[in-house]
Amino acid sequence: MKKSLLFVVASVALIGSLALTQTPSGPKHHVVFQLSEDNGPAWEAVVIHVNNTRKALAEDGGSEVEVVFYGPGLLMLKKSNTAFEERLEKLSKDGVKLLACRNAMKNRNLKTEDLFAFAGQVDSGIAEIVRKQEAGWAYIH
Amino acid sequence: MKKSLLFVVASVALIGSLALTQTPSGPKHHVVFQLSEDNGPAWEAVVIHVNNTRKALAEDGGSEVEVVFYGPGLLMLKKSNTAFEERLEKLSKDGVKLLACRNAMKNRNLKTEDLFAFAGQVDSGIAEIVRKQEAGWAYIH
Amino acid sequence: MKKSLLFVVASVALIGSLALTQTPSGPKHHVVFQLSEDNGPAWEAVVIHVNNTRKALAEDGGSEVEVVFYGPGLLMLKKSNTAFEERLEKLSKDGVKLLACRNAMKNRNLKTEDLFAFAGQVDSGIAEIVRKQEAGWAYIH
């Protein structure tokens, strides 16, 4: 009786500590992409890569994905970048967070109204990537 | 007597939970390299970097290394890329896994027989990198 | 009485295992930057990015930051690179570790006296990044 109680307690401690080292419920996979390049192959690639990654991981527990835009990569989120508007809006509607770095916005004197309405914002693009890695997200650049 | 049993159980729980957060036995270090660039300095560099990394980590518990080829980087694994064949085959014989992304193969209409015989394949290069990071592998790009 | 002891032991096991999965005391955040590019936009960017990241994380527990220079990126640490001397020395004085890869030094026949006096050295730049990721540091490239 006492022994079985001991094992229950030990199991609870074990399961508890396991749970605490994992990301909370929801999709099984968590991925943060960095988009810091100027207009060029990286812009085409990031859309394709996010879609392919989500499709591959959908068969294995699903994924939560965000893309952090900073440096010259921020320009991909400008409203005037109509060539990518449809593809980016589709990503956003699919639940992918597209996040603009406020440091990059300041550097380039871009305001919220200069960016696509579906873009979110973070104080610092790199700090955001750091926080996500700390929370167990995979990082892709 | 009962107290000592308690401590044994607690220790087992502690060691068990520790073990579960680490990569299984084998080499101490686990590294996944991304090769997504077209022909150029990145191709020369990846061979040198993998070799140097393995050498440095050999003195400290050894390493398990894989390189994931996707985007235009997939072309490095084409049989016709004879300039790199010997160096890549040497890596493969040394135990480094060289993995082609099947999405990139489809995009470029490349079949298994178009790639070096020593190349492996994964469904999605990025999903592979994500899974490795989730399993505690270091990521280098 | 015995039950309460059990819970104390279980809690100790739980807290102990938690503590062991976290980075030791000091700043809350730990970030390793890779600088492997030749002279160009990446050199300007790394200084700005390290400063912005440290500023953003200063409001949230602080950060320990190091930058690993390898490949052609090593050249940024050459004494003759006077255009960046002041900015790099400022980073170093702010506590950011600037580390030269000894493999890259050998490849380019550069000696300790060819590099800025405030630069440190590591056996292998990539092995250093691997070790930092293993120790829970976020990686930015």
Structural overview:
The structure is a homotrimer of 141-residue chains. Chain A is globular. Helices cover 46% and strands 18% of the residues of chain A. In chain A, strand 2, helix 3 and strand 3 form a beta-alpha-beta unit. By secondary structure, chain A is an alpha/beta fold. The mean pLDDT of chain A is 90. Chains in contact: A-B, A-C, B-C. Chains A and C meet through helix 1 and helix 5 of A and helix 1, helix 2 and strand 5 of C.
Question: What's the overall average pLDDT of chain A, rounded?
Answer: 90
Largest sheet of chain A: 5 strands, parallel
Rounded to the nearest angstrom, the distance between the terminal CA atoms of chain A is 54 Å
Low-confidence stretches of chain A: none
Query: What structural class results from the helix and strand content of chain A?
Result: alpha/beta
- Binned, the helix content of chain A reads 40-55%
Biggest interface pair, counts: A-B, 29 and 26 residues
What are the secondary-structure elements of chain A, in order, as H or E?
HEHEHEHEHE
Please, what is the oligomeric state? Answer: homotrimer
Report the C-alpha radius of gyration of chain A, rounded. 19 Å
- Strand arrangement across the biggest beta sheet of chain A: 4-3-2-1-5
